[in-house]
Design brief:
Homodimer. The chain is of the alpha/beta class and 275 residues long. 30% of the residues lie in helices and 15% in strands. Helix 3 crosses helix 5. Residues 269-275 have low confidence and may be disordered.
């Protein structure tokens, strides 16, 4: 896979030289090219922003350098190959594991991390007519720039590429992995030593009984999802849960509503008493 990133802060992307992504680059599994947007400016100050039309606070990134930069990167492709454009923005589509899988199947991604109030909208409109484009948000908050989002997306995508993880099956049980049971998050994990600061590990994990271990892991995934991500639980189809699942959910204060989805009962565990 090839990744191109156009930014005014190339040094921000240095973490792409370490860990799994760095190793993937060293092995040739990932071709990462970072470009300085200011290389496509033509004034003595290398200006990339200007005041917004209509007034208001902040500055807007100018279309001219972005247009030249994107044209240059696109032209560097082989033959008729075109990149998929990824635009990090708080107003974009939420970044999920499913989207990471979708992007991991693209041979070439081109990122446009913005600063200030964002990129002149005409740039997105222009290249949206030429390329597949994803406007992506990594969360409901605002950062100083999109480079951090590029790091997040790149790591999530790169680990899905064949050969990047040491164990090819490692990502199949990830939280939010497509096709995973009921979109539950993963439960807790443990390793050696068997006792640490007076704290042991659940006996079932050293029982050697694979069925009981699998049941414990499923129970813990349900518990953690119900506690930390009730929004996911509320989206689950009750039909994916077996009898034991339903018993545990009832103990945790969840019931199936008239609308056919799980909701938490007031006054039950994990739910504050209604005032």
């Amino acid at each position: 896979m090839r990744l191109d990133i156009v930014t005014i802060f190339p040094e921000y992307l240095e973490p792409l030289n370490v860990s799994l992504v760095g190793k993937a680059r060293a092995r040739g599994q990932l071709d990462v090219r970072v470009h300085d947007l200011r290389a496509w400016t033509h004034d003595r100050h290398n200006t990339v922003d200007d005041t917004p039309y209509g007034g208001g606070p902040g500055m807007v990134m100018k279309p001219d350098p972005w247009g030249e930069a994107l044209d240059s990167v696109i032209a560097s492709g082989e033959g008729d190959t075109r990149p998929t454009l990824v635009v990090p923005t708080p107003s974009g589509r939420p970044f999920t594991q499913a989207l990471a899988v979708e992007l991991s199947e693209c041979p070439w991604l081109l990122f446009t991390p913005a600063r200030y109030e964002g990129i002149d909208r005409r740039v997105i409109e222009e290249y949206g007519e030429r390329l597949d484009i994803h406007e992506v948000s990594i969360g409901d908050y605002v950062l100083a720039g999109g480079e951090a989002a590029v790091l997040v997306i790149t790591e999530a995508v790169a680990r899905l590429l064949p050969g990047v993880l040491g164990n090819a099956e490692s990502h199949r049980d990830d939280s939010f992995a497509p096709g995973r049971m009921a979109d539950l998050v993963e439960g807790p994990v443990y390793t050696k030593p068997p006792e640490w600061r007076g704290r042991g590990i659940p006996d079932v994990l050293v029982s050697g009984h694979h069925g009981r271990i699998a049941r414990w892991r499923r129970d813990e995934a349900i518990r953690r999802t119900a506690l930390n991500r009730p929004d996911l639980m509320e989206r689950c189809d009750p039909e994916v849960f077996d009898g034991r699942d339903r018993e545990l959910l009832a103990e945790l204060g969840w019931e199936v509503s008239e609308g056919g989805r799980y909701v938490r009962e007031f006054g039950r565990p994990g739910r504050p008493v209604e005032e």
